[in-house]
Structure to design on (379 residues):
């Protein structure tokens, strides 16, 4: 058997939507992008959203929109994908790395409070792997210090915490719709917030800073049947980026959004089977105290003999992954070293196992049996 690590759940609904876009022959930033933004805001339960072409772009522009003075500090968890920290550097801000909690792998709020000082303007918590950061504790603490919380929700599209969607607790939230994520548009991203002014600022930046996109101008004359010699007019206020989403991606997103709750449920069912299957293992332990009321991007385990485990699974035809190492270990961040003892110690034990909607019961069983076999040899 050969089992891959991830697989996007795409099919005829996405194809039909793409065909629709082709039939209309408007492929760029157009009506589908606007429709996807609206549908996403409704799904999440927030006032406004703006779609971009990646989660990295979403993080870059969300931080940019706050216009923080250069050289200020941004608190970033040490265990995350590089884009979280890059969002600070893109904006000429200094990332300060916060250690993670041993039990949950999430940004340690005690360490955050220790590293916070009045140079800090924002924090970018990551619901890492999909496991929720305790935002109910973080938000009041941050608000009383005017520290902006821009969350990286790349791993938790569709997830919730204490009955409320992840991405609605924070000042602004950034999603990734890259092909491996819980909802995919191939590549894509979204910034969501209740702060409509903030979202409009980002909208003004995402297409090279044009005050009005081609579609808006086209609509003015075609849809409203308006005659106006100045319909071509747009102006540039900001040094914008070419970060807009396009209608092909948005049409895929609209189909994916309809399936998101189903996909979340499937992911949780698979995790439930995994957890039950490995509950007696001693050398392989679940990486999170999995909360089965939300959803997860990763099924991650903790294994002391990680290299042996990876090779063992490889021999069985089972793909594994190690997605991240503490950010200061990357050469780009060598000058940003701080005390992050827990992350430095435990990151070497984490491994990601196959998790995707179409994983079959037989495949799940096969992975569990392989883990049990490994465990018997390493107890
Ligand atoms: C994937 C990911 C991103 C970036 O998303 P892209 O859409 O690939 O740019 C940001 N943060 C985290 C934690 C991610 O996993």
């Amino acid at each position: 058997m050969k089992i891959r690590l991830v697989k996007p759940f795409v099919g005829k609904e996405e194809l039909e939507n793409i065909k629709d876009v082709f039939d209309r022959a408007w492929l760029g930033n157009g009506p589908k992008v606007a429709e996807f933004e609206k549908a996403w805001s409704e799904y999440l339960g927030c006032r406004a959203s703006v779609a971009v072409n990646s989660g990295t772009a979403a993080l870059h522009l969300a931080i940019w929109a706050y216009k923080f003075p250069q050289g200020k500090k941004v608190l970033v968890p040490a265990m995350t994908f590089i884009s979280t920290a890059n969002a600070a550097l893109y904006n000429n801000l200094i990332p300060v790395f916060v250690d993670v909690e041993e039990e949950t792998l999430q940004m340690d709020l005690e360490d955050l409070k220790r590293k916070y000082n009045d140079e800090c303007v924002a924090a970018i918590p990551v619901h890492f792997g999909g496991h929720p950061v305790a935002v109910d504790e973080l938000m009041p603490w941050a608000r009383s210090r005017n520290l902006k919380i821009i969350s990286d929700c790349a791993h938790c599209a569709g997830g919730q915490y204490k009955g409320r969607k992840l991405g609605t607790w924070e000042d602004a939230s950034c999603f990734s719709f890259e092909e491996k994520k819980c909802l995919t548009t191939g590549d894509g991203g979204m910034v969501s917030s209740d702060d409509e002014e903030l979202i409009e600022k980002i909208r003004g930046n995402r297409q090279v800073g044009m005050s009005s996109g081609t579609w808006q101008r086209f609509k003015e004359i075609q849809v409203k049947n308006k005659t106006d010699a100045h319909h071509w007019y747009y102006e540039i206020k900001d040094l914008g980026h070419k970060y807009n989403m396009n209608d092909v991606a948005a049409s895929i997103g609209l189909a994916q959004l309809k399936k998101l709750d189903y996909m979340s449920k499937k992911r949780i069912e698979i995790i439930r089977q995994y957890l039950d299957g490995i509950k007696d293992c001693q050398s392989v332990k679940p990486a999170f105290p999995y909360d089965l009321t939300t959803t997860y991007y990763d099924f991650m385990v903790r294994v002391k003999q990680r290299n042996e485990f990876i090779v063992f699974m490889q021999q069985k035809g089972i793909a594994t992954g190690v997605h991240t190492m503490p950010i200061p270990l990357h050469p780009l961040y060598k000058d940003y070293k701080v005390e992050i003892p827990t992350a430095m110690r435990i990151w070497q034990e984490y491994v990601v196992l196959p998790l995707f909607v179409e994983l079959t019961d037989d495949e799940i069983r096969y992975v569990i049996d392989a883990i049990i076999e490994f465990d018997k040899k390493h107890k």
Summary: The chain has twelve helices and twelve strands. The longest strand covers residues 48-52. Residues 54-56, 80-81, 83-84, 126, 152, 154-155, 176, 178, 189 surround pyridoxal-5'-phosphate (CB under 6 Å).
